[in-house]
C-alpha cells in the first residue's frame, strides 16, 4: 500500500469487533443475517456519516467510479452501521455516492453494530488511510485520535499499522510555525524537509529555509547542509522532547476520569495540562470530582 499503513480496513475492523462485543440480541439483523454478513440494502435506507472527516469528494473521480460500477458492478461492498433510522456508512462513502449517481436501487453492504465512539474513531482512521493526504492532514488526524480518544502514540501506531517512531515524526512537524506548515500543506515543502525544519526553533531561520526550499527546490540533503552552515557546523538542535508513553497514558486516564477533554503541552520535565469545561454545571461537576473527590 502506497500510504505505508500496511493493514487493510478489513483486519482493522476486526480489531473493533473484539473490543466491545455487541449484545447477543443485537447481533442478528432484521433480515436474519449475523453481523458481518453481506446484505443487499435499499440505497434509500443508507446515509453518509455526518461526522465523516473527509468533506470534499472530487466530482470527476466520482463520475469515473460510477461508470466503472455501471460496467462491472460494485465489486467491493460498502460497510455500514445499523442505526435506529437506517444504515450509516462507516467505510466506502465514495462507492456509496457513485452508486447513487448510477441510480442503483439496492447496494451490497456489510452490516456492523459498533458504538458511536467506535464509528467516529473508524471514520478518522479510514480518512488517515487515504493516499492523497498531505503530511499536515496526517499529523492533525493522529493528534485528533490521541486527544479525543485518549490514545497513546503506541496505540495510534497499532491502529494504523505504523511504527511508533513514524507516528512521533508525524506529530513532530506540528511544532513548525503556521506559515511553514502552510507550505508543507501546499506541497511546496516535503515531509522530509519538514522533519529537519522542526529541529530549528528560531522563527526567522525556519521561514528563511522553508522559502528557500520552495523557491530553489532544495533536496533534503541540500537542506541538511544549509542547516549545518547556518548553525556554524554545530550539532543540530534536538527537537522538543515529546511526552513519554506513561505521561500520555496519564493524560488519557485523567480525560476518562473527568469525562472531558484534557490537553497537554510540554513533556515529562515541564509543561501545562488544560482541562476543558463547557458550562457552569460542567465546572461544578469538575469541582466536585477534583476537590471533593466525589
Give an account of the 3D structure:
This protein has 294 residues and is of the alpha/beta class. Helices cover 50% and strands 12% of the residues. The chain contains 14 helices and seven strands. The protein has helices at 9-17, 24-27, 59-72, 93-102, 116-128, 135-149, 153-160, 164-172, 178-185, 191-197, 203-216, 220-230, 245-258, 280-291, and strands spanning 38-42, 46-47, 78-83, 86-91, 106-112, 262-266, 271-275. The strands form two sheets. Strands 1-5-3-4-2 form a five-stranded mixed sheet. Helix 6 (135-149) packs across helix 8 (164-172). The radius of gyration is 23 Å and the shape is flat. Residues 1-8 and 20-34 have low confidence and may be disordered.
| Strand residue percentage | 5-15%
Helix proportion:
40-55%
Overall pLDDT: 81
Main sheet properties: 5 strands, mixed
Structural class: alpha/beta
Keywords:
disordered N terminus; 7 strands; 294 residues; five-stranded mixed beta sheet; alpha/beta; two-stranded antiparallel ribbon; flat
Amino acid at each position: 500500500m502506497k500510504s505505508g499503513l500496511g493493514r487493510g480496513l478489513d483486519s482493522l475492523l476486526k480489531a473493533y469487533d473484539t473490543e466491545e462485543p455487541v449484545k447477543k440480541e443485537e447481533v442478528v439483523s432484521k433480515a436474519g443475517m449475523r453481523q458481518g454478513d453481506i446484505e443487499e440494502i435499499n440505497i434509500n435506507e443508507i446515509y453518509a456519516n455526518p461526522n465523516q472527516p473527509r468533506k470534499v469528494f472530487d466530482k470527476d473521480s466520482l463520475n469515473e467510479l460510477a461508470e466503472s460500477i455501471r460496467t462491472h458492478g460494485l465489486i467491493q461492498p460498502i460497510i455500514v452501521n445499523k442505526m435506529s433510522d437506517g444504515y450509516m456508512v462507516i467505510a466506502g462513502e465514495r462507492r456509496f455516492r457513485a452508486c447513487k449517481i448510477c441510480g442503483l436501487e439496492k447496494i451490497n453492504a456489510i452490516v456492523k453494530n459498533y458504538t458511536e465512539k467506535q464509528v467516529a474513531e473508524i471514520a478518522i482512521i479510514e480518512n488517515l488511510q487515504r493516499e492523497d493526504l498531505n503530511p499536515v492532514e496526517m499529523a492533525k488526524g493522529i493528534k485528533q485520535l490521541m486527544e479525543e480518544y485518549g490514545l497513546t502514540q503506541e496505540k495510534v501506531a497499532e491502529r494504523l499499522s505504523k511504527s511508533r517512531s513514524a507516528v512521533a515524526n508525524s506529530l513532530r512537524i506540528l511544532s513548525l510555525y503556521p506559515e511553514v506548515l502552510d507550505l508543507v500543506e501546499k506541497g511546496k515543502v516535503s515531509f522530509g524537509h519538514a522533519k529537519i525544519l522542526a529541529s530549528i526553533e528560531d522563527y526567522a531561520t525556519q521561514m528563511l529555509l522553508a522559502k528557500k526550499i520552495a523557491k530553489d527546490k532544495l533536496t533534503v540533503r541540500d537542506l541538511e547542509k544549509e542547516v549545518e552552515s547556518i548553525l556554524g557546523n554545530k550539532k543540530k538542535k534536538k527537537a522538543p522532547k515529546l511526552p513519554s508513553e506513561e505521561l500520555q497514558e496519564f493524560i488519557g486516564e485523567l480525560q476518562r476520569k473527568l469525562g472531558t477533554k484534557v490537553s497537554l503541552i510540554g513533556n515529562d520535565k515541564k509543561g501545562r495540562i488544560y482541562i476543558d469545561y463547557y458550562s457552569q454545571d460542567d465546572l461544578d461537576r469538575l469541582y466536585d470530582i477534583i476537590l471533593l473527590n466525589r
